[in-house]
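User: Sequence in, structure out. Go.
Assistant: Echoing your sequence, followed by the structure tokens.
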Amino acid sequence: MPSIAPTRPTKWESIITTKVKCCGEVLQCHHCKRVCHKYGNDEQCRFLFPYEVIEESCYDAASKSVVLKCGDGTVNYFNPYILVYYRHNHNFKCILSGRAAKTAMFYITDYIMKTEIKTHEMLSLML
């Protein structure tokens, strides 16, 4: 069987790789601040940083979940094209369970509304 010689990256691939590295270092690295320790999270970052370093993506049968590769525990999961095009920090997360979806809904609602009372507190008063 003939071997396929590796190809050199195109100019576009070289540029996008450089841009991802530059933007990623500035925008995607997490450094704990005061906001990380709100709501009684004095000992640990409430955003769960640093993540566990994972050498290779795999399926965890015990938790029935896909564990994504993580080379640096201080970097958010991100899409390289969105990062370069929009140049803002973002974090991708797969939301499959009802509980995770509910948590995301509360977070997004609280983030947008910026009210004194949090959504989960309002809902508990209504029930």
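User: And one key feature?
Assistant: The chain has four helices and two strands.
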